[in-house]
Amino acid sequence: HRPDILMAEHQLKAANADIGAARAAFFPRISLTTSVGTMGSELSGLFKSGSSTWAFSPQIVLPIFDTGARRANLKATEAGRDIALAQYEKAIQVAFREVADALAQRGTLDDQLAAQESLTQALERTHSLAKARYDAGIDSYLGVLDAQRSLYSAQQGVIALRRARYGNLVGLYKVLGGGR
Predict the structure, then answer these.
(1) Residue 2: is it exposed, middle or buried by C-beta count within 10 angstroms (0-12/13-18/19+)?
(2) 139-160 burial code (b ≥16 CB/10 A, e <16)
(3) What distance in Å separates the CA atoms of residue 134 and residue 138, rounded to the nearest whole number?
(4) Minimal CB count within 10 Å: which of 52, 102, 131, 158?
(5) Confidence of residue 91 (pLDDT cuts 50, 70, 90)
(6) What digits encode the pLDDT tens for the residues 96-111?
(7) Rounded to whole angstroms, what are the CA distances from 142 to 7, 11, 72, 102, 133?
């Protein structure tokens, strides 16, 4: 459902149709044109009996003298098809690369998030121990503030990694062609 791949696919289909049109130009064309109407020398006699007229003109076009130009046109449309095919293949390769990159990033983000959450849990324990030491009068409040600062920094890291992970999920949805 990726728009870039759909566009390349439609361009490839159009290039194939152009080849069919270029091949059809080698065949003779026959067209028949007819017309029916009325005519009169005066406006008042325009619709009287005997004022009707008709014409018939056949036309045949034979590609005899411009065959070289038609062959060159066919080769040009085939080259255009080859270009459209290369663009289609490139669009598919770009799509695969983007999906692979997004999936690889997702795996590393999950590992980083797990490590950061583990660090946050350890710092929560450190903070509670520092507070307990302060409450018992063993340590100064500076230890509690230092543990609290480290804990808040680790919590901000968890938030940043979660935001990056959700951004990655949105990017993965996009590169997979979601949302049409």
Answers:
(1) buried
(2) eeeebbeebbebbeebbebeee
(3) 6
(4) 52
(5) very high
(6) 999 999 999 998 999 9
(7) 63, 68, 85, 43, 11
